[in-house]
Design a protein that fits this description.
about 400 residues; mainly alpha; 19 helices; about 75% helix
Amino acid sequence: MRYIISFLFFLLSLGTFGQTRAIKEAKSLLKSNKLSDAEKAIDKILQNEETKNNPNAWDIAGQIQLRKHEVENQKAYLRKPYDTLLLNSSVLKMTKYFIQCDSLSQIPDAKGNIKNKFRKDNAESISNEINHLINGGYHFMSSEKADDKRIALDYFDTYIKAVYHPMLEKIHDTEKDTMIPHVAYYACVTALKINDYKSVSKFGKYALNSPTYAQSAKQLLTMSYLEQGDSINYLSSLEEGVQKYPNDRFFFANLLDYYIRRDRIEDAMNAIDDIIAKNPNNSYCFYIKGFLYQNQQDYENAIEMFHKAIALDPQNAEAYSGLGLVYCILAQDYSIKASTNVNSPEYERDQQILRDYYQHAKDPYEKARELRPEQKELWLNGLYRVYYNLHLGDQFSEIESLLKQ
């Protein structure tokens, strides 16, 4: 039995010796500047079950990439041809390797002690070259290929992970790093283009601190919640957006749409009134309020709101269209109870009332057409009804031809 145990310890020592020798060989190749051979050797070591959890191996892997970067950087400094992709990709790999090295080095030994001899130097190396992660991300995000955009996300993600990693805590002030929100925003834009909504949510929170892109980042973050079916965060993000950016139609319109689809009309009205209280000159809010009144068949208040919207913004084509629609609805409703007996004394009176309604609809519909000729949904069907009921033959024929197109 003692012989068997001794033999097992002998085999174990051989394995340990083999690990150490392989790592030393890779390190020797690095010192000899045989970077290609060193990289091949270390790749095998990192994939080997016996060596993949050895922090020394990951440190050497990072050192190889750092040296490759330095070679290309020196070429650039001397104004010689250099590999831009390699200049950046080597920093990407180096950062990942050093982070893994640090994680393994933080594992306590049998006595519960942590002996991380790599952190200081590796942290400085990452900090010195970290901007190349941004450059690499920018390069790949401009490509139309989905795979390239995923590579860009890898660069941006590695940047965010690195600056917030404990190993950089003492030398990298994230509070003063103005690039973090910019990197995060570009990551959001990149992720959105490949429908990676989880990544949009992940990076969007960092991008909210950008003085330039915060509002757009909030929109992207909100959209990501919607696409992921996260109704709780979607509603919360919309409500926050409305409070922070009261003049941004994105948040306001989508919040109202959320309420209206769920028949929460009172909440929609309260949201509108809250915005109007903060910005009484918001024409769009009065238009939406008129739209809600119209849907509730409160036509008197709807007309009042549309007129207010137009008074605040004479270019508000939607408000003109809404006003025309209300008068057409009033005409339609009145026609149901209007006298159809041409011999009745009420007949001519009712016909005049109907003509007045359509005449009131005519001007705003025509104004909507003048302002937005390309948006036929705002005026085409309305003018068809108006011209028909006012017996305006030439105008009716012209509108009818448009409907047939």
